[in-house]
Amino acid sequence: SSSSSSSSSSKGRALALGHRNNCHQHHHRRQGAASFFSTIVPNSQYPETNSTANNNEAPYRPFDDFPDNPPARWARRNAIRDHGAPKSIALIATGTESAKNKSVAIRDMGCGRRLFLLDSHLSGDTMEGLAYRLNLLKTNAQLSSLLLATDGTDDSDTALRLLHERHAETSVDYDYRSPQGATDDEVPPQPGQTFYVCGGYDPLTQLDTPEMAGATLQHLHGLSAAIRGGTESKIPLITVPHGALTDGGAALLLSSYVLATHETSFRILNPRRGLSLDPTGLSYWLTRVGQEFDQPSQHYAAGVALILALTGYTANAHDLVETGLATHYLGSPANVPILEENLMEVPAWKYQEILRPNKQYDGHGQPGGGHQQRRQRRDINASFRNVQVANLIMDITEYSADGIDIMSVPDSVTQDPIYYDGFLDPSLDAEFDNDGLATEPEWRTSHLVNYAATFGPLLAQSPNIVHVYGEMKELANNAKRVKVEPEDQALAQLFCRGIEAASPLATVVTDQLLRRGNPRPSETLESCLQRELMVQTKMAALSPDFQTWRENGGQAPKRWCYPDVASVPRDQVEEMLAPTF
C-alpha cells in the first residue's frame, strides 16, 4: 500500500519483526488467529456425481463425501487414548471432514491452516477443543502460518471461488447473532447493522448454573491463552475480523497479527448485562494500550480503558490500530484471498532458512559419528523465520500500529499534544462540529484516543469510577456555571449516558478490575486472566443484576439493584474481587 510505505517503511519492518508474545520467533506478540479456507482446487477438478449428471445438478465437493471421515476418527481416538487429548476435539472439523453441526472447521492451506468460525458464539466444549488444536498447531514446525479470516462462512470455499464467483446467489441473514461472512453476498450490511464475528459465548444459555458458568469461562480462559501462545509457539496466527467483536470475542485480538477492516469494531457489553470482563486479558491490555508499539495513545491508557470497558463505546478499526489492539489496517477484505494464496507458498517454519550450520566434528576430526557431542546449538536462522509472513502482511495492508505519518514541523509546535517525537500523530487530530460531535474523521483519526486525551488528567488521576462519574456529571450539566467547550460538554454527556445504561454493581466491579490490572511489576497477563476468570464466575453466580437481565430475556431491566454507582456497597464489591469463591 503506497499510503503506508512512504511513512512507515522503516518502522513497518520493525513492527513486522516485533514480538507480540514471548516467542523467540519473529512475529507479533499475538500468536496468530486461524482462518477458514481450503487449498485452492480449480473447479475443473470437481467431477460430476455421475456420468449422466445434467448441468443443473450441484457440482461435487470433496468434503461432502466424508460426513464421518474414518481416518480422522481414528486419529482422534488415538489422540484421546494415547496423548490425553480432550474428547471435545471431535467438535472441530479437520481435513476433509464435513463441518455439519459444528462451529469450527480447520482446512489445509499449503503448509498452513485456514480456520473457519461457523458460529459467532462457541460452546465451552468447542472452545476447549479449539484451544487444544491451536496449542498443537502453533508449536508444529512443519507449518508456516494459521489464518482466521471471517470473509466467508462456507468452509469448503476457496480463494478462486471468492475471486470469481462473488455474484453467486446466496441467502442473506443480517441477524446480529449470525456469523454472516463478508463475501457471502455482495450486499453490504444495512445501516446500523454489521457482520457479527465473535462474541465468545452466549450468556443467555451458557451461564445457567455456577458449574456451567465456571466450565464455560475456564474454557474461554484456555482459548485466550492458546490464541496468545507461549514460549514454545512458533507459528503466527493471523486474524482478519471483518465485523463486530464483543466481550469474549476479544480473545481474537490476542492473535499474532490482527488485520482490522472498515467493518471491524469492538464493544464491551457485559456491564449492561450485569457482568464484568470475560477472561480474555482485557484488564491487562486496556491499561497498557499503545505501549507495545510505542504509540501516543499510551499516555491516555487509563482513559481508553475506562471508556471502552464501562461506557459501551464502539471502537472502530482506526481506534483499534491506534491503540495497538489491532496490528494493521486492511483497506479491502478482497485482499484476504490474495493473502491466502501467498501464504500457501510460504515454506514450513522448519525450512525457512538461509544460513547452513557448520558441520560438527567428533574428537577424531571426523564429521558426525557416534562420538559427536550432542549439545544445544543456537538457531542461526532464527532472525529469518516468519519474516516472509510478516512482509506479506505489510504488503497487503494500508498501515500498521507503529506507523506515524512523517511531517516536518517547527520545534515551537512539537509540544502540542497532537505531535509525537516531532511527527504529526493522526490519531490525535480530530475536529468537532458545532454540536460537539466528531465530524467525518480524517485518515487514521482515532476518536477514542481523542476522547481519552480530552479528559486525560481526570480519567487518569481519579481514585474510582464514583469520582469520575461525579465530575463528568457536573461537566455535562455545567453545574459550576463556567464556560465549557461544547465538544467537552457533549463528550461528558456521552460518558454519563454510557455509565447510566450499565449495571452500577457491574460498573464498579469492572472499574476495580481494571485498576488492579494497572501496570506494575507484579501484574502479568496470566495474573489478570486468572482474576478475570474468578470475578466473572462470581458475577455470573451472584450478581442480582445479571439474573434480572437473564429473566428479562437479555433486555435491560427497568431498574438495577442499585440506583447509581455511588450506592454500591464496598463490601459487595470486595466480595466479588476476593481471590476465593
Which key features would you list for this structure?
alpha/beta; 581 residues; disordered N terminus; four-stranded mixed beta sheet
Low-confidence stretches: 1-19, 21-67, 156-186, 369-374, 404-424, 427-441
Radius of gyration: 25 Å
Number of strands: 14
Please identify the structural class as seen in this structure. alpha/beta
Share in β-strands: 5-15%
| Average of the residue pLDDT scores | 76
Q: Order of strands across the widest beta sheet?
A: 1-2-3-4-6-8-11-12
* Helical residues, percent: 25-40%
Taking the alpha carbons of the first and last residues, their distance comes to 52 Å
Shape: globular
Major sheet details = 8 strands, mixed
How many helix segments? Answer: 18
What report would you give on this structure?
The protein is of the alpha/beta class. Helices cover 34% and strands 8% of the residues. It is globular, with a radius of gyration of 25 Å. The termini are far apart. Residues 1-19, 21-67, 156-186, 369-374, 404-424 and 427-441 have low confidence and may be disordered.
